[in-house]
Amino acid sequence: MIIVLRHDVTPQQIEHIKERITKLGLTPMISKGTERTIIGVIGPEDILRVTPLEVFPGVEKVMPVLAPYKLVSREFKPEDSVIDLGKGVKIGGKKVIMMAGPCAIENYDILYEIAGKIKKAGANVLRGGAFKPRTSPYTFQGLGEEGLKYLQQVGKELQLVTVTEVMDPRDVELVARYADVLQIGARNMQNFNLLREVGQTKKVVLLKRGMSSTIKEWLMSCEYVLAGGNFNVILCERGIRTFEDYTRNTLDISAVPAVKQLSHLPIIVDPSHAAGRWGLVAALSRAAVAAGCDGLIIEVHSRPEEALSDGAQSLLPERFAEVVNNLKDVARAVGREI
Ligand code: PEP
Ligand code: MN
Question: Which residues are bridge partners to 3 per DSSP?
Fold first, then answer.
C-alpha cells in the first residue's frame, strides 16, 4: 500500500499519519520526491481495510502496490534514485559510471598498477574481490582482510570508490569498515540473512542478479535490503544461465530497460562475467549503454594470463581505455555522458 500525500501536507500531518501506521503494527517508509511525498506501508496491510487512511488530513489517495516488491518499485518512488558513492561520485544521474579492476585482489603492487590505469582511462570505481566465491574449493579463495586493506589503501591514494564482495553475514561489519560499496554476488542473491545484514547498514550495496533468477526474484531480494532501511542499492545484470554455452552466461540486455521501468534504482551491467571472454566485452558494453544502464563493471588485469581468477575475461588496461573512449559516442546518442 502506498499513501500519496497532498502537495500542501504539513510535517505535523506526516508525523500523525506515521504514528497511526506504526500503532497498527505496520512500518511507514517515506519517499520524498520533487513532486510528491509518498508513504509506503510495509507489513500485513489487511488491517487498513478497517482503518481507512484516506480520511487523514494531508492524504490525497491510498493505492495498493500491485508488484510484490514495494519499496523497490517505481510506484513507491517515481523519480530515479541517485546514489552517492562518496569521493564525489554519484550513480543514477546523467553520467554513466565506469567501475573496473581485477577479479581478485592479488597483491598491493598489481592492484595499484591496475587502479592507476583504469583511473586514467576514466573509471571512478575500483573493483576487486578479497572473498571470492569460487566453484572449486581448491582454487584461490581471495586474500581476505589483507586484500581489503590493500583495496582501501589504493582507493584512498588514487581517490577511487571501492567495491568488493561480501559472502558471509558475519563479515559484513569487517568489509564495511574497509570498502565503500558492498557487493552481493550472483551466488548469494538469495542469501536472505546476508541481504538482511547489509540492509542494516547505510553502505551502498551492489546486488548482482543470480545466474538462474528471474527479474522478479532479483527485485524481491533487493526489497529485503530496502525493507531493512537501506535504500542505497545498485542492481547489476551479469548474465544468466541459458542453453547457450559459447559464452559463460547470456547477457540479458532486456533486464536493463525492464528494471528501469519497474524500479527507481540504478542498474549497471557486468559484461565480463556475462561473456566469459574479453573479446566480447567491448560490444556488450556498447549494447548495455545503448539500453540505458547507469554504469558498467568490467574486469581489467595488467597480466591476464597470470591472473589468479577470471583472466580469460579480463581486459588489458589499454583495451579498457579504448572501450571507455568508444562508449562516449554511444552514451551521447542516448542522452548520457561518460
Ligand atoms: C565477481 O564480480 O568477481 C563475481 C564473482 O561475480 P558474479 O557474482 O557475478 O559471478
Ligand atoms: Mn570475476
Answer: 39, 62
Nearest CA to 237 out of 292, 198, 277, 311 is that of 292
Ligand nearest to the CA of 308: 2
Cα 124 to averaged position of ligand 2 atoms, centre (Å):
19
Cα(280) to centroid(ligand 2), Å = 15
Name the percent of the chain in helix, strand, coil, to the closest 5: 40, 20, 40
Q: Find out whether the beta carbon of 208 lies less than 6 Å from any atom of ligand 1.
A: yes
Which sign, positive or negative, has the C-alpha torsion 221, 338, 91, 309? positive
CB environment 251-277: b (16+ within 10 A), e (fewer): bbbebbebbbebbbbbbbbbbbbbbbe
pLDDT, tens only, 11-64:
999 999 999 999 989 999 999 888 889 999 988 877 777 777 888 999 999 988
The residue nearest atom 1 of ligand 1, judged by CA position, is: 103
Neighbours of ion ligand 2 (CB under 5 A): 103, 310
Query: CA-to-CA distance for 283 and 205, rounded, in angstroms?
Result: 27
The tens digit of pLDDT for each residue in 155-193 reads 999 999 999 999 999 999 999 999 999 999 999 999 999
Q: Is 209 in the pocket of ligand 1 (CB under 6 A)?
A: no
Nearest ligand 1 atom to alpha carbon 186: 8
Domains and CATH numbers, the chain: 2-63 (3.30.70.1140), 83-333 (3.20.20.70)
The dihedrals phi and psi of 53, each to the nearest 5 degrees, come to -90, -10
Whole-model pTM over 0.85: yes
